[in-house]
Amino acid sequence: MYDLREFIDKAYDAIGKHNIGQVGKYRRWLKQDEKNSRDMEASVYGASLATDIYYTLGGIPETEREGLIREIKAYQDPLDGLFKYEGSVVCHTTAFAAGALELLDAVPDYKAEGFSEYITKDGIYAFMDKIDWDNDPWLGAHWGAGIYGSMLLTGMSSDEWEDYYFDWLDKNEDMNNGLWMGKESKAPLFHYIAAAFHYVFNYEYAKRPIKEVDKILDTCIDAYNHNEECKMVFDRPGWPYIDFTYLLVHAQRRSGKRFEESQIIIKNLCDKLMNMILNENNKYDVFDDMNNFLAVISAIAVMQDVIPGYIKTSKPLSLILDRRPFI
Predict the structure, then answer these.
(1) How many CA atoms lie within 13 A of 21 on its CB side?
(2) pTM higher than 0.85
(3) Calpha distance 146→156 (Å, rounded)
(4) How many whole angstroms separate alpha carbon 303 and alpha carbon 270?
(5) Among 32, 251, 258, 302, which is least packed, fewest CB within 10 Å?
């Protein structure tokens, strides 16, 4: 068993250090990098990350709630309803910010009218077709999954539009491995696995059936056991942990197959992650970048749910994907 109570106390302290001295205003990073390339000012991304992490750890402080709502809303463009942040695609930022507002029991002031060209069947089909499925499906998923969160969480979507969106995904799921692939599929396998995570959490939110869920499960297990390139992505704490664990767990639950194998993998990944973040000689500062820390604590939330009694916290961790689409 791993006792994370002291670790979580440190996490709360770290979030506080990301605050720039004003209620609701947070920066993404604590430390500047060697190239002096990081934005060290408060941003919509910083406030959204703080919201997500507070929620995951145990709840958003009431003293921060109104400030966070005000800060996040300040970044929405009233002309097109989109949230923008340099270094992140607009679909990602809009879904991310609107998702943070949902955790704060608030809604954006405007609909994402900037995406109105995608409201028709032809429009969303063309949007999804333009994603670079061959070379960059992982980044492409920020667009492909982000458009769903952006439309849904700003009030732009409809039942009919959701049908169009999931119909496209249903038609383009690979029947051999359950992933969403390009015709040439030049990217590493894990990039397609990580991309699939983004689409599956939308399916989970919408309670829609996934046609090839057995194949997704097989692909995850086989990749972990036999693909050296896939194994290497777990050598440092970060996004591969939540992408893979969530996808594996939810594919297994829907499939009902290969339970013992899945449990062994999750436990092994948990041990590996805990050794990295709890080791006194830890070379990874998991609190420096709130974006990376959100991935780590979200993966731990999945693991705590999957392996009861293995991870001790004062309050059970709450996975934001259990409440809203997009992370």
Answers:
(1) 1
(2) yes
(3) 13
(4) 7
(5) 32
Q: For the chain, give me the number of helices (H) and strands (E)?
A: 14, 2
CB-CB contact of 194 with 327 (8 Å): no
Torsion 17-20-26-32 (CA) sign? negative
DSSP secondary structure code for residue 2 in this structure: E
| Closest listed residue to residue 242, CA positions, set 303, 326, 298 | 298
Structure tokens at 69: 């709502």
Q: Classify residue 41 as left (phi > 0), alpha (psi -120 to 50) or beta.
A: beta
Rounded Cα distance, 29 and 17, in Å? 10
> For the chain, which ranges sit under pLDDT 50?
none
Closest CA to 208 of 183, 182, 173, 241: 173
Q: What is the pLDDT of residues 249-301, one digit of tens each?
A: 999 999 999 999 999 999 999 999 999 999 867 778 899 999 999 999 999 99
For residues 212 and 74, give the distance between their C-alpha atoms in angstroms, rounded to a whole number.
41
Which strand (E) or helix (H) includes residue 260? helix 259-278
Show the CA angle centred on residue 322, arms to residues 75 and 327, nearest 5°.
35
Please report how many Cα atoms fall inside a 13 Å half-sphere around the Cα of residue 30, on the Cβ side: 16
Q: CA 203 → CA 126, 166, 195, distances in Å?
A: 20, 8, 13
3-class state of residue 82 by DSSP: coil
Q: Is the dihedral of CA 79, 155, 140, 181 positive or negative?
A: negative
Residue 80 exposed, middle or buried by CB count within 10 Å (0-12, 13-18, 19+): middle
Evaluate the CA torsion angle 192, 193, 197, 202 in order and state its sign.
positive
Cα-Cα-Cα-Cα dihedral sign, residues 47, 288, 150, 252: negative
Query: Which DSSP letter does residue 178 get?
Result: S
DSSP tag of 264: H
**Whole-angstrom distance, CA of residue 143 vs CA of residue 117:** 15
